[in-house]
Design brief:
The chain is mostly helical. Helix content is 48%, strand content 12%. The protein has one domain.
């Protein structure tokens, strides 16, 4: 099964709003590709340091998924 990496803005948005956006993007991509896709976990549920650069967030997401195997 192919994997889908979804990245979307999180700053100032509720967890519910973010997850709804990700679900919508997931469904759109499955529709476009015509097959089921496994979503790579990219939602960060811990506090991000104030003023963190967007690359910090991206690197955290990549590192988190690599460490999960």
């Amino acid at each position: 099964m192919k994997k889908l990496f979804i990245s979307c803005p999180m700053k100032g948005r509720s967890e519910e709003n973010i997850k709804k956006s990700m679900q919508k993007m997931h469904k759109i991509m499955e529709s476009i590709l015509g097959e089921e896709l496994e979503v790579i976990q990219t939602y960060i549920d811990h506090d991000i340091p104030e003023g963190a650069h967007p690359r910090y967030v991206l690197s955290w997401k990549i590192n988190f998924n690599v460490s999960r195997g």
